[in-house]
Structure formats: structure tokens, C-alpha cells
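Pasting as-is:
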Amino acid sequence: MVNDCQYKLPNIPLPAHIAMQKNYTTLQKRFYLVLLLIAMATVPAIAQYNQDSLQQAEEPAAATGDSAAHTPRFNIHAQATYIYQYQPAFHSPYSGQNSLKGAEDKENSITSTLYLGVRLWKGAEIYINPEVAGGSGLSGAFGLAASTNGETFRVGDPSPTLYLARGYFTQTFQIGKAGTTNIPEAYNELGGGKPDNYLKFYIGKMALSDIFDNNAYAASPRTQFMNWCLMNNGAWDYAANLRGYTYAFAAVLQQGNMAYKAALATLPVTANGSDLNTDLTQEYAINAEIDRTIKIHKRTGNIRLLGYMNDGHMGNYTEALQQAGTGGIPNVISTREYGRTKTGIGLSADQQVNDFMGAFLRAGWNDGKNETWAFTEADREISAGISLTGDKWNRKSDNLALAIDVNGLSKSHRDYLAAGGLGFQLGDGALNYANESALELYYTYKPNQANGLWLTADYQFVLNPGYNADRGPVNVFSFRLHIEL
């Protein structure tokens, strides 16, 4: 660490949860390897199971001519994703408790998910997803709004942990006499003949990002961009616990090329906390989105407008600064009150350009008056990128993509950090404010067209980490192994 800066910060011990993230044991690392080997070993068994189930369903369909019957009563899938990241040392004249550390860092993560689906009656389905996650982001996923590994932003303990990611019920009702479309079965999708116009209800534990902000080219850190602010709209402080899930009731109305979505969801008890507050008289989140499918030169695209409001036990940046007074260090936690809100909007668009290329754009804004509660510390965001399949070089299942993201803070939020305040994610102890920018480039290689294995090489460049022009830039090199069963 270089200490020749005008800012002289006290030696602050690392919080216990950061120290714990560095305390990997040989046993934990062996567990990651065993988990990957188990996932790879079960590929043939699960693939054969799904194939046998589909064949059994197709036999009565062939006799009756019922296309809706081309699906099993239940299905089972799984995924495993391993990510390794290397960050070389970067310019860091000072740092605080929640900074991205300037020293060289190497981290890895692994997640493994089981996807179970059961059809109950016409239009009714249940999906259950047990999940194991372990590992750490760079510096414990502190110090960046545009954090570099979307698989670790909700991992509170580096030790591999088993939990229920999703467990929800859906009921779909056909509207009018519009036709049906045969949907292939997949993760959390039993497939079969589904109505073109419908009203669908969800209730249970889920991720709001499964329903909202479904950008075609930037939505999953397991298969697409890894950066937090490229997998979702960074200014959307969406309701979730520290692993990314919430209890919610949601509805989707699909009519022609328009979709209307709304959800009522629970917020965590504390900022970025693991426990969800199920008392909706105290805390809740409302999300709504309008989604329009468009055609440009017969190429499919979508435009989405999202709005949200979180009502919870939040602190206020301006009040924290007033309480601290001149020269004091503000603490937003001390100002928390029920009934505080955060409101925001987001725009998302994606468009297929030709047979092998697609493009996307996102923009977001929230009021930034009260503390960030669930996702990441960004009050303004704009991102754009392109994604190419490997058709041009005879690798149709490969993928090359490039995107850039720019984030900003509200004035009260930046003043709070400049005075030495800590968010749940940021806090250098001082701040020479500038917009935080991230560029990401990746190439995904599929060795065999017939199996579900992908290998990805990824590079990210971050300018002004934590909105601080005194630090950085940061280079991050990543490798990802993804298996789908």
C-alpha cells in the first residue's frame, strides 16, 4: 500500500466476514473439485432421464395428435458454474474498510443448482431449486458497484452452503381464442403447448430478475457477461436477500406483442441481509414493467420499461451527514427509519441485428436519497454491448461479446462517501468523485456441440473503482467453466 497521499486513514481491522472469506481451507477447495466431478458424472444419467421422459410423453401424443402432450409430467435439470478471477495489483494511494484492495488478488467461486419441475393440473406447475454456492469475489465483493463476478454477489459465506434458491407455484390461464405455441422444456420450464395470450401468476420464493429486465444478451453471469451491472440494471435496487432471492407474488399478462408485469416482494431485514422481512406492513417492494416485442427488418427485438419502489427501514444520506457535523464521519445506519422509500426506473432494449449478431442497451435511474438496500451502489447507469455467435468462423455454439457500463451516484450519496461514510458495499474513507466505468470482453467456447459444457475466457477493465478517480484502473482476468445437464 502506498501511503504518500494527503489522506491519512486509521488502521481499520478487516470485518470478520472479510477475514473469513480469506480463510479458505484445503477441505473447501477439495469440495469444489468433488462438486464439479459429481456434476460432470451425472450428465449422462440426467440427459437420459429427460430423454426417456419425453419419449414416454410423445407416445400418447402420437396417437391423439395432441401437441400439448409433448412434454413430461415432471423434469429435472442441473447446472454447475466455476469462475476463477485474477486481479493484478493496481494504483491505490489510500483505501478504506470497503475498498477494492490494491494488492494482487486471486479468487474463485462455484455454484451448483438442481432444477425440479412438476405439472399439477392444467396450467399449474411447481418449481424447486436447491442450490449450493461457495467462494468469494475480489476483495470479498467490496469496492465496486460494477463488481466483476455475478456468481458471488450474494454469497455471504465462502464455505460451500446448501440453501433453497427457488420454490414457487405458477398458474397460467389462457385469454381469448388465440392459438398455442409449443415451448421446449428447459430449466424451470416444463414446456409443451402454451397459450399465446395468457395471464400467469407466480407465488413463492424466486428471483425478480427471472421475470423483470430479461435482456436477451445480458442477463446471466453463468453464460453471458459476468459483471453485476451487465447482468442486471445497476440502478435497479431489486428486492432480494444476499443470495439474490425473495418471497414474492407476481403476475404477467401477455397479449399479442405486449407483456405487462407486476410483483409485490419482500425486502431483507437489513441492507444486503440474509433474512427477509415477511411483514409487509413494515417493508415491501413493488415492481412493474411493460415489455413490447418489435420487429426490425423481420428481426426480433424487445423494449422494456421498468419502474420500482422499495419501502423499508432505510437510512438517509443527508441526515447522516447532518448528524456527523463538520469533520465527523457519517453513519447512515444510525438514521434508519421505517417508511423510507427508494424509487427508480429502468429502460432495456435488445435487438437481433442479423443471423449472427445482437445488440443491447440499458439505462437506469433511482432517486439516491436513501441507502442502497439490496443490489449494488449505483444510482445512475447506462450500458450497451454486442454479442456475436461463431457462425462466421464455423463455431455456431461459440459466443463473442463486448459491452461497456457507466455508473453514477446521487449528490447526497457521493457526499456521504466523500466524508468517510460506509455503504454496505463501498467506502474508501475519502472520495475524488468520478463516474465508475467498466468494459467487459468474453469468448465462450463449446468443445463439443452434443454436450452441455462451455469454457469462457473473460477480461474486464474498470476505471475509477468505487467512483474514485484517485484509484485504479483495475484489470481482471477470468476463466469460467459452465455445465448444463
